[in-house]
Amino acid sequence: MKVVTCIAPVNIAVIKYWGKRDEDLILPINDSISATLSMDHMCAKTTIMCSPDFEDSKFWLNGVEQSLESKRLVNCLQEIKRLASAEPSNAEMLRWNIRICSENNFPTAAGLASSAAGYACLVTALANLYGVKTDLSALARRGSGSACRSIYGGWVQWHMGCNPDGSDSIARVIEPSIHWPEMRILVLVVNDARKKYSSTTGMNRSVATSDLIKHRACNVVPKRVTEMREAIKTKDFNKFAEITMKDSNQFHAIALDTHPPCVYMNDTSHAISDMIHAYNEHKGVNKVAYTFDAGPNACLYLLESEVAEVLSLINECFPSTVAKSDYLRGIPLNIEKSSDDLKFAMNLQVNEPNLLKYIIYTKVGEGAQVLDGDHLLTMVGLPK
Ligand code: DP6
């Protein structure tokens, strides 16, 4: 019997991945860049066990049994087993059935990049179980494109590559998490009841129907990637924020240029973006950057020195009746400062209460890791 448990982080792109050139290998049409978020507040955890005594293979996600037939899961498993079979001593173990148990420590329903953390975790656990020592980002990519960036900590670039077999479509660290220690992230989870199109469905439809997406991939992203790498390396927040916001907006413009359109941001998302622009204008320089993925939630990048003021501004503009302990999650923080004056100076409106579900305050963190014990499965391969 063998057992491995891993944890893996969420990542939030500042240059978005949107569009594939190969659906099966999950090869993108442009490079992307993200920051990996601390696993203290959001992470996936996976235990994988294999044993000659298991009569079948099983997979549980957040306590619910799942099929093991999903194409992406099969692709990840097959690829790792293929690599593992190069080592003759693995032959017997590769015939054993496996049990996989996976959990997220944040609500999947919040639409917060759970598949990225989930696949990065699964692949790290599988590779450790079978002793596979290759670049794990290319393996995680087979589960979900953005998962390749969650293998590593800090600031990460997914290089689209050009080989048809995808061998050079891998993630690489631009700078480790300690490079910009003041960087913080506020995840604003927005209340929303609309039906969602998954990223996979949305980006396939964009590639098939949007003209803008070609212009973005060929003419915009290559230059932006160079500028973004430079802004990160030199810790130029003003430039970093400008590119981050422009790139988020271009991605959503492409989502709208898709036919039929994919509408991911809602009125609350737009109200958040307006508030951030008003704040940056008031300060005369970009102090906060917003970015939105395939949903209405906002991720704000800002330096630690701005957090108390920006949070109190958010609380003024987006009042909430939710108990404070439930509302502000993540890094503990006491906001005593009122931003009432600021709100008036900026001529901002107070929105109706409870447009936001909760806020997660976090920072840039490390990549996927193997844990020493703390398994999610019992010795007989059932969820604890
Ligand atoms: C908007 O990685 O979820 O979050 O590869 O089809 O699984 P698949 O898509 P996925 O797409 C993420 C898109 C995004 C932007 C990003 O994270 O770069």
Automatic annotation (TrEMBL):
Residues 8-171 form the Diphosphomevalonate decarboxylase-like N-terminal domain. Keywords: ATP-binding, Cholesterol biosynthesis, Cholesterol metabolism, Lipid biosynthesis, Lipid metabolism, Lyase, Nucleotide-binding, Steroid biosynthesis, Steroid metabolism, Sterol biosynthesis, Sterol metabolism. Residues 185-370 form the Mvd1 C-terminal domain. Pfam families: MDD_C, MVD-like_N. Its EC number is 4.1.1.33. InterPro entries: GHMP_kinase_C_sf, Mev_decarb, Mev_diP_decarb, MVD-like_N, Mvd1_C, Ribosomal_Su5_D2-typ_SF, Ribsml_uS5_D2-typ_fold_subgr. Gene3D superfamilies: 3.30.230.10, GHMP kinase, C-terminal domain. PANTHER family: DIPHOSPHOMEVALONATE DECARBOXYLASE. Catalyzes the ATP dependent decarboxylation of (R)-5-diphosphomevalonate to form isopentenyl diphosphate (IPP). Functions in the mevalonate (MVA) pathway leading to isopentenyl diphosphate (IPP), a key precursor for the biosynthesis of isoprenoids and sterol synthesis. This is Diphosphomevalonate decarboxylase. It comes from Nicrophorus vespilloides. The lineage of its organism: Eukaryota, Metazoa, Ecdysozoa, Arthropoda, Hexapoda.
